[in-house]
Amino acid sequence: MLKNYLILGFTLLVVISCKEESSNSEPNELNHELNPISSSFKKIQSSVSGIDFNNTITHDLNTKFNLFDYDFFYNGAGVGIEDINNDGLKDIFFTGNQVPNKLYLNKGGLKFEDITETANINTNKNWSNGITFADVNNDGWMDIYISQGGPVDENLRNNLLLINQKDNSFKEEANQYGLNDTGISTQSAFLDFDMDGDLDCIVMNENDYYGTDPTQFYSILSDKSKLKENSSHLYENINGKFLNVTEKSGLLSATFGLGLCISDINNDNWPDIYIANDYYVPDMMYLNNQNGTFTDVIKQTTNQVEFYGMGIDIADINNDNLNDIFALDMAASDHIRSKTLMASMNVSGFNLLTKTLNLQYQYMFNAVQLNIGQNKFHNVSQLTGMSKTDWSWAALIFDTDLDSKEDVYVTNGYRRYALDNDSRMQISQAKQQYRNNVPLNVKEAIYNGLPSEKLSNILFKNDGDLHFENVTAFSDLNEPSFSNGAAYSDLDNDGDLDIIVNNMDSDAFLFQNMAIENKLGNYLKVITKGKTSEDFAKVQISFNGNTKTKESSRVRGYLSAVDKTIHFGLGKSKLIDTIKVFWPSGKYEEVYNTSSNSTITFNEEDAILNRSFSPSSRNLKFKKNNQLLNFTHQENEFDDFLKEGLLPYKQSTLGPFITKGDVNGDNKEDIYIGGAKGQAGQLFIQSGKGFITTNIPAFKSDAGYEDMEALFIDIENDGDNDLYVVSGGSEFNERSPELKDRLYINDGKGNFSKAASSDIDAYTISGKSITKIDFDKDGDLDIIVGNRIKPQQFPIHEPSIIYQNNNGVFTNVTRLVAPEFEDFGIVNKVITTDFNNDGWDDFIAVGEWTSVGMFLNNNGVFENIAGKNGLDKEIGWWFNVTETDINNDGNKDYLLGNVGKNIKFKVSVDKPLRVYADDFDDNGTNDLVLSYKYNDIFVPARGRECTSLQMPFIAEKIPTFNEFANSSLQDIYGEGLNTAYEREVNQFNSMLLINNGDGTFKKVILPIMAQTMPILDAASIDYNNDGFEDLVIVGNIYNTEVETPRLDNPYGLILVSNTKNGYNVVEPKESGFYLSGNAKSVETVSINGKSFIIVANNNSSIEVFEY
What we know:
Blueprint: E1 14-15, E2 41-43, H1 46-49, E3 79-82, E4 91-94, E5 102-106, E6 112-114, H2 116-119, E7 127-134, E8 143-149, E9 160-164, E10 170-172, H3 174-177, E11 185-191, E12 200-205, H4 214-220, H5 224-229, E13 233-238, E14 241-244, H6 246-249, E15 257-263, E16 272-277, E17 284-288, E18 294-296, H7 298-301, E19 305-306, E20 312-315, E21 324-327, H8 335-340, E22 344-345, H9 347-356, E23 362-363, E24 367-371, E25 377-379, H10 381-384, E26 392-398, E27 407-412, H11 421-433, H12 440-449, E28 455-456, E29 458-462, E30 468-470, E31 480-481, E32 483-489, E33 498-503, E34 509-513, E35 522-529, E36 538-543, E37 546-551, E38 555-556, E39 560-561, E40 566-571, E41 575-582, E42 587-595, E43 598-603, E44 609-610, E45 623-624, H13 640-643, E46 658-661, E47 670-673, E48 682-686, E49 691-693, H14 697-701, E50 707-713, E51 722-727, E52 742-746, E53 752-754, E54 767-773, E55 782-787, E56 801-806, E57 809-812, H15 814-817, H16 819-822, E58 829-833, E59 842-846, E60 848-850, E61 853-858, E62 861-864, E63 876-877, E64 880-884, ...
Parallel strand pairs: 19-23, 35-43
Antiparallel strand pairs: 1-22, 2-34, 3-4, 4-5, 5-6, 7-8, 8-9, 9-10, 11-12, 12-13, 13-14, 15-16, 16-17, 17-18, 20-21, 21-24, 24-25, 26-27, 27-29, 28-31, 29-30, 32-33, 33-34, 35-40, 36-37, 36-41, 38-39, 41-42, 42-44, 45-78, 46-47, 47-48, 48-49, 50-51, 51-52, 52-53, 54-55, 55-56, 56-57, 58-59, ...
């Protein structure tokens, strides 16, 4: 069986590679300096260390011992570190799949003795996978538990429990203890889940039903007897005997478990369980209900996870004292591999998982789940630069260079690439030729021809601000291998953490950390001794103005067990002000003024204080108010990808938008919220207590339109606000009458009727944004409309328009007064402003694949002066521009909202993302081509399969995936590129333009948290009541194509002015600004002296916050 079960004929989910990739290296905009010493590891040769373990794998096509028949054949094995003889030195245990397990005693000085033969550790050993330790019988000596699986009969898969005999030997007693689990076990962990004072056990299992499509899989496992055999298992310790309580505890669920971590995820002082699942089964986050049961809350706490879940770790990567989650997948980091090796997702399969089966959203990238408080996580893997590490296994988070920031180590490599797309085609052809009875010699030839490539493991140095730099090349870590399990420990007791790696078909790695030798920093080691060996104590230290919290947890990474000693890097600090230890039992102790470079031991039995751990709590400023306003946006069904299969995201789900203004002359702010096609826009009149929903027949009559932005404007100069609504969307055909904008006349009491036809009716264009302006200073209000795309022809833009108002009659004068604006490009936002304070209204326009347009009004004629500030070179996916004055100097500053850095595409001036559009295959439809630079040549971002679905000539012109992967864009499309519509983008950062007051602007990139999200809209507030204007920002893009992770941050942010030249970000854990929908717009209103923020979500209810 193969990991890509398409090879077996299941085509529902996985198709040949359609992966979009970007340039391989992200621009180093923060100018981080690489320090070779900071990642310095020295490889210790086996001849020196005495460690000669080699997890040799031999296939046999006559049996199930091969990748064709056993999907997990090359999944490798683990390594564990523990002091098994109580001599103070950490020993090493390797598990082997087909080879014997090995145990090495630490003799000091990174020299080890192989005691396998005398230790009696291979009794009942078959195919061993994972390794962990625990003092199961509570005798003060650590025992060993081994998880077993493999292509063997169930009765040969029993897990092993090696009871320490206190003489460097062990006795296998899994059956006696009730821990002889017979699943395809991958890893296990001991914990006291019921807090009764003894150790229980979670056994994570793979599944017998690999290779089945999801519908069949869940149908088979609706049989509870089969489900019990293919679930992970929880065992409760009752008087020294372990009993299976999986169903009773709420853990009975089908798993393809590869990654396991135990952690107090929600900080309630009870241990929780996280399982990373392979294939289409989403990860599981089991929170402890404190009553012997668990609840899987993965859909409530995250918005997306990785797809092929592998190894995981849980630790704090940004020093905010909240544990984050890093889970690995298998996304190729190289263009060639991404086009030849990787599986892909199609729309029907994606919808089956997320809609029909109601599973969590999954994407084929690593996941870095940033803990944002209140049991909410946001995947920021794209932002961190750690989203693609190839076929990865172990993820370990620890401080390698003692700088007090946690780094990340990743193992990768796969012995044979089952997902190679050309090999898949070869297999399919052979099965067809031989009618599914392929001769052994043919199978052998195909098998041996499967690609195999050793890759270096990766060390990411944490530079702070969620930026991780690959520094592997600066040490001996840069050695290609097939690596699986890995663990860390201070094996030489010098104060830094060394690395041990279990390799397939080569000797294990032992890397000595040279941080102490190179005097990179100081350290503190804390040993916790609880009432059980697996105590999960939390240790919090304060030093040099910093606070760090870590948790004692052994099972991390992949199939492995690290040294559970808690290790802190301190940088150059020499003194720890306070050490606090929180035991899950509620016991607490602290010590003061501890010198660095020391080891301190805490015993739970010595703790006399009682205090439970809880992260610093704040009074959240924003409070949800569900009573103020009642509106639910109802998006119409339309599949943009049916005709435009290569779109990066839907163009038909941009709304709704909020507009405020006084419609009845009572000096209160009323609200209009636009509707989708088939849903009328809604007007809400402010009363003394909230808002009253109105019934406007004219709006209902126009429900067939798709509302974009709207504007309250006094068209008739009669003193009341009329309403202009921009029509748009991609559901309509080009020049459809439903694309014309609408004007509604106010009778002065808030009653609106459709205006008589005007020049506006002549323009049936898909629009987006609107602003009012008196550009000719004649006393009446003119209108600027920013338009977007020709429907279903992304990214070909429509002309934007300036309407001159002559006594209520509107005339298109764009070509006369602003010819550059007419062909500006896709416009997402246009605002009126006076950026040079000369009394003449200027305007700014931004959009996708555009620069920032700064249109200066020269006595009624506009000139784009963006080039004078370099803004013509800042080409982005701009969604918003908001006027503000960050420093109260009277000069107008501007927030520029971009798509942000948490997107899979990486761009720079040297390596832009380029788009072409034309009817490349001459079939009457527009074709979209995304492209990026690889080795200084533009290559296709999308894969051969999905590109061929849009343009069938490509499959005929380029018959193999390897040839496609090695083809330039010019090779594929030829001269057709020369006449195609072409745009590019080189900037994804959101930024602030600070007005210097002399016609020039300073560009300031927003803080990193503001780059974790697309900024689609912003509104002004004074968050801290200091008299300086702050901003509230929102934005999501849920409807991406199925291989592009959604931009689904579950929060908005507050940008608080520093009163000078930038913003400080108030995160939701401080403000309470947590969002639950696909946020598109935001507005603020005041009611009876109270302030509210209204957020409009696509295809969902609005959210209101009082502050």
